[in-house]
Design a protein that fits this description.
Elements (H helix, E strand, L loop, with lengths): L1 H52 L6 H79 L1
């Protein structure tokens, strides 16, 4: 039984490591998307200031429309990535819980076996002590 529990623990550890790797990738992706959104907003603000200073040079309405499309698309991507991150964290929590359960069961079995061994040793020592006492008092 020990080997099967140890194997299950190792499998869960591997699954957990794999999910951690995926989580790191998604967190980096979210960070990149957030950075892109900030850059887009900053760029829009700069263009807005430029148009305020030079109102006759360009059609700011078309630029704003494109900006809003890009912003909505980025915000949607960020929400999707955040949902995936939440899902990965939930999966990782379940895997960790299973791994911990296997570990606890394994530890309980080990302790129970150790108790049995200790009880047998104590019984044997009690027998030896009783036999020594009987021999001593028979002489």
């Amino acid at each position: 039984m020990r080997n099967s529990l140890a194997t299950l623990e190792r499998i869960k550890k591997f699954e957990l490591d794999e999910k951690r790797r995926l989580l790191v990738i998604e967190l980096e992706r979210e960070e990149t998307l957030q950075k892109n959104l900030k850059e887009l907003i900053s760029s829009y603000e700069q263009e807005k200031e430029f148009v305020e200073q030079n109102p006759s040079l360009c059609d700011f309405g078309a630029y704003t429309e494109q900006y809003l499309k890009k912003r909505r698309r980025l915000e949607k991507q960020i929400r999707e990535v955040q949902a995936k991150i939440d899902q990965l964290r939930d999966i990782m929590a379940d895997i960790f819980k299973e791994q911990k359960t296997y570990s606890i069961v394994d530890e309980n079995r080990r302790q129970r076996k150790q108790k049995e061994i200790d009880a047998k040793e104590q019984k044997m020592l009690d027998e030896i002590g009783t036999n020594a006492y009987i021999k001593k008092h028979q002489d």
